[in-house]
Amino acid sequence: METQRKPNTALFDVFLRLRPNPATDRERFLDVEHLDEQHEAPTRITIKPPANDYRKRSVEKFAFTRVFEEHVGQREVFERTGAVGLIEGVLGAEGREGQDGLLATLGVTGSGKSHTILGSRSQRGITQLTLDALFRHTAPCLVDVDSSLTVLQSLRAADVSEAQLFSAAAFLDAIYTDNYGISRAATPARGATPARGVTPSVETSLYKAIGGSRRHAPRLSTLPTDPPIDDIDINVDKTAEYAIVISMYEVHNDRIFDLLGPSCAAKGLGQQKRRALLFKPTELSPDRKVVAGLKKVVCSDLEEAQLVLDVGLQERRVAGTGSNAASSRSHGFFCIEVKKRLHSTRSGPWTSSALTIVDLAGSERARIAKTAGATLAEAGKINESLMYLGQCMQMQLDHAAANPGSTPNLVPFRQCKLTELLFSNIFTTQQQQQRGVSKLPQKAIMIVAADPLGDFNSTSQILRYSALAKEVTQPRIPSLTSTIPFSTLGRSHSRPATPSALADELDNALAELARVKADLEITQMHLEEETLRRQQAESSWQVAESRLEEVEVEIREEMWSEMEVKLQQEQRRFLAARDADLDAQDSHLDRKLEIMTRGISVFEDDKENVEGGETGDEAVTRKQRGSVVFVRNEEEEMRLADLEAENAALRERVANLEREREVQRSPSKKMRVLKSRKWEGSGMGLDEV
Ligand SMILES: Nc1ncnc2c1ncn2[C@@H]1O[C@H](COP(=O)(O)OP(=O)(O)OP(=O)(O)O)[C@@H](O)[C@H]1O
What CA dihedral angle connects 21, 452, 331 and 323, to 10 degrees? Predict the structure, then answer.
């Protein structure tokens, strides 16, 4: 059994609303679990595949914040989903700014989304109930834009979305009186006289000038008032004054179109001529994306707001399909902006927070919806954007389960306009909020609509990605053969081979394929996230490694220079010792030589003098006059020979030492050099003796 619990730290509270279906010929596949008879609010449902399901799919259980069964009415849904809290959050507590809010419906086509959000001819939807609650409780604090142009201008100046702001009186006048002669005063819904004493002609002309007038359909004469909500209390900041501004747009084929702007239909232009708007940061809103260039209408009461809403809804794409006579072909966004400023500082700045109510188009299967041409292409885009929405919701829920309280990095909300509009500001604001730049939006409300007698495949697919928790009683491993229509395998089987049975099989196979594709894309997202983490880890590893190398080089260099210093010191010590040794030897030698030179007188030319005429006696006499008398006898001859030998040995040694100390010259060396020269050629005559 696979169980996946998702905690309540998700961005959404997810409610399931079941629509009543009077059909008696269909099998019910969805049951609500009533665990306890006294338990007022069921939260779990079980879906069982149809009895003829050849794939033998398992029974699945899903948990939601709350399940609203078929009998639950509009008011209970409004109250129990927490819409009241959302409104109070947008209004802001006393002395504080409001917080943005989002309420959206999701489901397959015909499951009751539009009914929940916009109601019917007799029943109001969440949008009308919200407007009622807002105007009912803020009435004493609302600014009067009809009597003061200054207020309207200050609201225009405070708007960051490059919007064109009009008063509702001017807007409605331009819409309904142009060419058709239906005056505001004559409209039963508005009473016999204009609501305000101020003629909005300038503003009306302004709206007409931008091509705003457009309506063929007469304005609503009666508006539903059920269910009443006058007993519901809403906290309002009594110290503030408010302005309520309405804007509407739709996302059609992944492009954004203003629903309160000029109507192409009225001008005889094709829908494709409509100018798409951009979702972007503006000069006054550089940190936040906004739908730029919308027409916005400042409403003074509920009636005006409902008429404006009706104008927008008439412009919204709706088409009859096999599943729904009035099927929404676009995702509708209804924005109720609450502008607030301190009552005492009337010229002070306006703060703004928005409650966005979204009626998503339903996912549909072409065969059931019997769509073709442009409607089929629209369905393709709708299904694609819902698949991306499913991915985002699933990833966000998974992330919230794994990392409570943190912002997911990789929710793929930029894949289409719908998810970008729904998520980009939530995630941007979360990141800005972590930096203290911005305030967090409120927890959003998602109402999943389902028809328990509707299409099992598409409903189960939506439940799978929107539920807060799911439980599968048996793991279901779709086999290849189970996803391929039997007919293509050429098997003989007991199934009737009627075209409708084959088409059913084909549909099932396609639904399974779509599910597997969605699973695959989610896995790819996870893979990308993991790859990114791995790359980050690898790059930090590389940084650490190169730092390590640098440190190693630094340490090596430091040790090397220390070693060099020590080596030089050792060298110097060694050389000094050697010099001292040599000096000692030199001085010993010098002393020896000195003694020897002092003790010996050399007669160099006795023979020559005798031969030159001096007699031997004269020579002896001359030598006797010298300090030393050199008498050559045998003993002396021997001693002289010894000395000569010793002298030769000493000279050789001196020459060796001289060579060794060639580089380092010291006084003693100089002396040795001089001496060796002296010995070799100074005329001391030892060589010749
Ligand atoms: N809770 C309900 N009570 C009574 N009728 C309902 C309820 N929910 C839906 N319906 C009816 O079911 C039909 C289809 O509902 P709706 O148009 O709201 O579906 P949807 O989900 O908006 O479809 P699509 O996505 O095609 O626009 C409508 O006729 C609507 O009045």
Answer: -50
Per residue in 486-507, pLDDT (tens digit) is: 333 334 444 556 776 777 677 7
> Considering the domain boundaries, does residue 265 fall inside one?
yes
| Burial class of residue 491 in the structure, from the number of CB atoms within 10 Å of its CB (0-12 exposed, 13-18 middle, 19+ buried) | exposed
Residue 97 burial (C-beta neighbours within 10 Å; 0-12, 13-18, 19+):
middle
Tokens (6 digits) for 424: 């980009």
ipTM: 0.96
Burial of 445 (0-12, 13-18, 19+ CB in 10 A): buried
Does residue 268 carry a pLDDT above 70? no
Distance, CA of 75 to CA of 123 (rounded, Å): 9
Contact between residue 250 and residue 260 where contact means Cβ atoms under 8 Å apart: no
DSSP-derived letter for residue 333 is: E
- Give SS3 for 645: helix
**Atom from ligand 1 closest to the CA of residue 120:** 31
- Residue bearing tokens 């803020």: 138
Cα gap 583→574, rounded to integer Å: 14
Q: Which of 15, 17, 19 to mutate to test the pocket of ligand 1 (most atoms within 8 A of CB)?
A: 19
Q: How much is the pLDDT for 388?
A: 85
Counting the structural domains of the chain, the total is 1
**113 Cβ inside 6 Å of ligand 1:** yes
| Structural element, H or E, at residue 342 | strand 331-342
The distance of Cα 446 from the centroid of its chain, to the nearest Å, equals 23
CATH number of the domain encompassing residue 445: 3.40.850.10
Is 38 domain-assigned?
A: yes
Tell me the β-bridge partners of 200. none
Strand-strand pairing, 60-63 and 44-47: antiparallel
**Selection from 365, 136, 359 nearest residue 232 by Cα:** 136
The residue whose C-alpha atom lies closest to atom 1 belonging to ligand 1 is 19
Length of the chain: 689
| Ligand 1 binding pocket includes 327 (Cβ within 6 Å) | yes
C-beta 115 within 6 A of ligand 1: yes
Q: Is the pTM of this model over 0.90?
A: no
Distances from the Cα of 502 to the Cα of 302, 403, 496, angstroms: 52, 45, 8
Amino acid at 415: Q
Q: What digits encode the pLDDT tens for the residues 431-467?
A: 555 555 556 777 889 999 999 988 888 888 888 888 8
Residues near 104 by Cβ (< 8 Å), separated by ≥ 6? 357, 358, 359, 360, 422, 444, 445, 446, 447
pLDDT in the model for residue 678:
53
**CA 458 to centroid of ligand 1, rounded, Å:** 16
The boundaries of the domain holding residue 71 are 2-212+232-477
Tokens of 377: 């292409």
Query: 484 lies in a domain?
Result: no
Distance CA 359, CA 330 (A): 9
Arithmetic mean of pLDDT, 349-372: 74
Number of Cβ within a 10 Å radius of residue 270: 8
> In 3-state terms, what secondary structure has residue 2?
strand
Spatial distance between the Cα atoms of 440 and 422, rounded to a whole number of angstroms: 14
The residues, ordered by sequence, that sit 6+ positions from 521 with a Cβ below 8 Å of its Cβ are 387, 391
Asked if the structure places residue 491 within a domain, the reply is: no
CA atoms within 13 A on the CB side of 183: 10
Chain segment 310-320, per-residue pLDDT in tens: 888 888 765 55
